[in-house]
Design goal:
Layout (H helix, E strand, L loop, with lengths): L1 H7 L6 H33 L9 E8 L4 H13 L3 E7 L4 E6 L6 H9 L4 E4 L2
Antiparallel strand pairs: 1-3, 1-4, 2-3
């Protein structure tokens, strides 16, 4: 009944306009997403040029005082926030951490000290 009244009053059907609006919104969203990806790639490329990549070192650290997997996750999270640390894996069962770090930004001793400051007993292995 309403459609018939709209046609009699020369009111256009709104479905085609709605479809155009939805399609436009999708295109704008996709364009924005691709723009963000491209921008992120540019930023990533600008901050770490491959010619100046620093060499990293690895250190294995014994950790006493961990009581559960959450202790290991907390230590790992703290290590990842530590300046100079590139990556960290902490194993509760083996009571140790394997840490990759940039020697120009931190030292093995500072990494051990950071773990000790959390209340654990850390020491260099091997």
């Amino acid at each position: 009944m309403i459609k018939r009244e709209e046609k009699m009053m020369n009111i256009p059907d709104r479905k085609p306009r709605r479809a155009v609006l939805v399609a436009s919104a999708c295109v704008i969203t996709l364009a924005g997403t691709f723009g963000l990806i491209i921008q992120a790639q540019r930023v990533a490329g600008a901050t770490v040029p491959s010619a100046t990549m620093a060499t990293t070192e690895r250190v294995q650290i014994a950790i006493n005082g961990m009581h559960c997997g959450n202790c290991a996750r907390g230590i790992k999270a703290m290590l990842k926030r530590t300046p100079g640390v590139v990556s960290a894996e902490v194993n509760f069962e083996q009571k140790e951490a394997n840490v990759e770090f940039d020697p120009s930004a931190t030292t093995r001793e500072k990494i051990v000290e950071a773990i000790n400051n959390m209340g654990y007993k850390a020491s260099l292995k091997g």
